[in-house]
UniProtKB/TrEMBL annotation:
Tagged with keyword Metal-binding: yes
TM helices/strands, residue ranges: none
Family recorded in the similarity comment: Belongs to the metallo-beta-lactamase superfamily.
Metallo-beta-lactamase domain mapped to chain residues: 37-249
Lineage, opening ranks: Bacteria, Bacillati, Actinomycetota, Actinomycetes, Kitasatosporales
Keyword field: Hydrolase, Metal-binding, Zinc
SMART domains the UniProt entry points to: Lactamase_B
Protein name according to UniProt: N-acyl homoserine lactonase family protein
InterPro entries, A to Z: MBL_superfamily_lactonases, Metallo-B-lactamas, RibonucZ/Hydroxyglut_hydro
Cofactor(s) recorded in Swiss-Prot or TrEMBL: Zn(2+)
Amino acid sequence: MSRSRSVRRMWALDAPTITVDKSILLLGGGGETVTLPAPCFLVEHDEGLVLFDTGLASEAAGDPAAAYGPLAAMFEMTFPEECRLDRQIEALGFRTTDVKRVVLSHAHFDHTGGLHHFTHAEGFVGSGELRYAHNADPHTAGFFRSKDLEAAGRIKWNELPAGYDHDMFGDGSVTLLSLPGHTPGALGLQLRFEDGHTLILTGDAAHLRENIGHTVGMPFDADVVRKLDSLRKLKLLGTRPDVTVWVNHDPQDWATLRATGNEITAASLYAVRS
Ligand SMILES: [Zn+2]
């Protein structure tokens, strides 16, 4: 059996935001607007850096409409220069070329914008995700950005079959969680810290904590039945006392779990729980 290891360090990088009506995030949840972070997470492992999601496109910083056209107003994008993914990686003392592996939670535009920085990296994506992105159902086609899919075409992807979790390094520290439904290949990321505490990043298997709490999807899920199974899986994982589930777009989780700064540690997660 391989030696059990943990992640060295991880960061929840500062994020641009989008603002939408709650009904887009939760079936039956309309009537109020919600401002969501569009985050990226950087993980340092002995084998190198792993990036989970690539957020909005760097060229949208300061002027989202220039990169996204009418989508920028539709989603009320706010993107300060300091939230650029490439600059934040550099500010931590790394280069974008130091990122050895990139994991795509799914291929919607608020997760693929930075892919062009990482065409040198090894990619991990759920099976069928990129195929679906190129040939999506009409009600979801607007969520895929062709420029980002071109960049994705220059990355060598490992496609992970739906229904199977994948231990990236064979040491239990970084595990890709199969959470299909929102899109065919939706993934989450499970990280184990030195003291054994586990953090689960949901990707968009849930947009708000309420999706998990009430087992309710959102109107643009590709497969409603699989989505509900994935929400139940997250709910079950979250019942373990040593697990923190982070709903990546949830504004409350963002404020709470990053309360002590960009770097996320077992201690910072415990501080929130107590
Ligand atoms: Zn998203």
